[in-house]
Each structure stands twice: as structure tokens, then as C-alpha cells.
Amino acid sequence: MKLWGGRFSKDSDPLMEDFHSSIFFDQRLYQEDIRGSIAHASMLGRQGIIQEKEAEAIIRGLEGILEDISLGKVEFSLGAEDIHMNVEAILTERIGDVAKKLHTGRSRNDQVATDLKLYALKEGAALQELLEELIEALSSLGEEHLETIMPGYTHLQKAQPITLGHHLLAYGEMFRRDWGRVADACRRADVMPLGSGALAGTTFPLDREYAASLLGFREITRNSLDGVSDRDYVVELLSAMSLIMVHLSRLSEEIILWSSDEFRFISLDDAYSTGSSIMPQKKNPDVAELVRGKSGRVFGHLMGSLTMLKGLPLAYNKDMQEDKEAFFDALDTVKKSLLIYPPMLLTMKVNREVMARGAAGGFTNATDAADYLAKKGLPFREAHEVIGKMVAHALEQGKALEEFTLAEFQAFSPLFQEDIYEAISLLTCVNGRKVPGGPATDRVLEHVRELKNWLKEARDGRNRR
Asked: For the chain (length 465 residues), average pLDDT per consecutive 10?
């Protein structure tokens, strides 16, 4: 008999059972569901809505079910539809009719909303921890490669010399923002909907604040309709995860380019590469390619969730069952991607000489040559034109700017002196950019230290919650 079957005179069609059931995927909410039920039972007993001894029996039964599920001793029923009704049915089998009092003053609508928020908060913390590991790996590499000169690009054309440390710390900032977005979404999710009932609360004298304190929620929802129908936090976390995947995908694209024979900036460790079944020479960056590909999967879940919600009238609608598979799969995808990235980065071999040669080509010091003339008093726009003509001449001659003789430099401007060679050396070009946020060694080291301090504070703050 269904727990909701009093209104019905016949059983569900087997096709309906299969189509309607969510136990295949929402069973992962069992810990949150049982935690919520224990808190609800405790509150019911404390309020005298059920007897204290009844509440104690229910709690003991739920604790036993939690342990048995954790040990793999429980087989869920398709007919019980979802994790909530499965747990209640098992509880009834174990402790008898007193289990039927558990649902007093509660609906599956506010129950599932509570479960999913608890799960989102737990998984949000897991995402933050994985982001911290990645940021730490990028910080370590940034410090290791303070003076590893490489070309910086715009339009995928060589632009100015930078360092690998400076480049990687740019991703450190992206992932730090991602951490903040997850934290923001979790802060708004930290509001308990339990007690909202199906949509209009209940006539029982629930102590919602007490239940919230048992579950660790910061506060309770202010409107019962919103309490059961809100899935903003799912969308927010999907949005945050989509941006995480954007940033991982951009980094993956660079890893793929850098490991190609055309670049040869890096070589990935064999443990994070694959070969070809037909071409024995191949070493493919499959991890980076898979992460790049999986980004679309997460974007799709975000768009699917937005589309699912956009036309729903208040309050709960069965459409909202579709939030979980998308949310769960996105979490699994992002967590796996974040988990594999730090060891892949930390084991890659950096070809410093190749990177330096890459920076030496492509006239990446042309801006510095123009700055040299501007510092000598020539208006920058005129200096820009002079250097542009020099680059055109250098291309015709097949040489770099630093290969010009002083006489050749002075043929374009009498302002050039012997110090031009030092001014356009790659290390000078990099270390001369001391503006805050620039690639100069001292600035990058400051960035590394600041990021490490932030990591410590972030971890300490998360661990205190």
C-alpha cells in the first residue's frame, strides 16, 4: 500500500512506477533525509506533538536505518518511489505504527527541500576544498616559475614577455572567484524550509528554530510557498560550477596547446596521458581534453534547470524532481575534474628553454622598445610608429630587434643609445613591469604569498563552520 494511497482505488501501472520513481538517483540523499527526520522527530517530541518515548523510538529506528544503509544492508523499493518514502516504509517495518507519526506536521515538499539544501551545503564545502587544492597547486607552481620566461599572447599571437608563474596565477585568481561564488550560493542556501509543509505550513505548533539549530541551518525560511518551491540555490551552484568548468576548460586548452609539438612548452606525465592504438609515437593530453569536453555537459545542466523552473507556478510541481539528476551529475563531473587537475599540473615537465626561446621570437619586446623612446621624451604614438617600422624592417631582414646594431637603431631614431639592449632584454622587460598585478618577479612573489595567506584563512573559516 502506498503511503499516500488512501485516495486511490487501484495500483499504479508498472510503467508509471518506473517513470515516476526517483529512488534510483535520490537515494544519495539518504543521510540528509534521515538527519532531517531525526531533527523533526526530536522537535515533535520536545513540543509534545508526539510523546517523548515515541520520538525516542523513531530516532533509534532512524539511526539503525542510517547505519544499515551505510553498510549496504538496505535494498530500496521502486514502489516506494523516493528516498523519503523508502526510509519511512523501512522504519514502519522495524518499529511498527509509531513510525507513522514521524510525518506529523511535515510534507514531502518541505522534506525534499530540506534534504537538498543540506546536500547542497555539504557538496558546496567539498567543491571549496577541491578548489583550494587546485589554487594551492597553482600557487606552488607560480613560486617555482617566478623567472620562467614565456611569451604572453593576445589573439593567440605573441604579445609581450611574461613568466609562467604570472600566467598560472591568473588561473589562481579565476578559481579564487569561483570559491567565492560557491560560498555565496551556500550562504543563501543556508536557510531551512522544514515546517513549510506542502505549501501553507501546518496547524501543529512546530518549533522551526529548534529544528534548524539541530540541523545547523543559519535561519529559517520566511515564506512557506517560497520554502518549498525555491531552487535558486541549485541554479546558483550550477552557475558557479559552470564557471569553474569555463576556467578549467580555458586552462585545458592551453595545456593542450603547450604540450603539442608546435609549442613544446610542457610535457605531461605519462600517468596523465594516453597513446594511440595505431600511431606508436603519440602521447595525447586526454585529461585536459576530457575536462574541456565535460564543460558542455555542466553548461547543459544549468540551462536545463533554468528551463525547468522558468514556467512553474507556485508552489511545488513534479517538474522539480528534474533538479536532482542534473545537480548530482554536474557535481560529480566538476568534482572529478577538480580532483585530477592538481596532480596533473604538479607532475608536468616545463621546458624552460623552449618557453624562453618562444618569448625571444615574435618581437615580444617591441612595446618595451617603444616605452624606451617615450621615456627619452618622444610622444608614445610617435614611438609606436618608429618601432612598427623597425619591426617591418626586421621581418624583411629575418632578425630580432636585439640583433640590430646601434647604428641601425639610430637610423630609426637618434634617441637610441647603448642602453637599449638592456632595456629590451627579456628579463628587463618582465621585471620592469612592477605595477601591482604585473609580471615582475617581486610582484608575482607578493601574489603567491597573498594567495597562500588567503588559502589559510579560507580553510580556517570553512573548518569553523
From this structure: 58 64 89 98 98 98 98 91 94 97 97 98 98 98 97 95 98 98 98 98 98 98 98 98 98 98 96 91 94 98 98 94 96 98 98 95 91 95 96 93 94 95 93 95 97 95 76
Is 305 tagged catalytic? no
Per annotation, catalytic residue among 70, 155, 224, 384: 155
Q: Is 260 annotated in the active site?
A: no
180: left (phi over 0), alpha (psi -120 to 50) or beta: alpha
Q: Are 308 and 322 in contact (CB under 8 A)?
A: yes
Cis peptide before 411 (omega within 30 of 0): no
Calculate the alpha carbon distances from 91 to 23, 47, 86, 170 in Å: 16, 22, 8, 53
Q: Which residues contact 40 (CB under 8 A, 6 or more apart)?
A: 102, 105, 106, 194, 211
Nearest to 151 by CA among 164, 142, 139: 164
Residue 315 near residue 225 (C-beta atoms within 8 A): yes
Q: Are the C-beta atoms of residues 412 and 389 closer than 8 Å to each other?
A: yes
Which of 276, 305, 337, 447 is labelled catalytic? 276
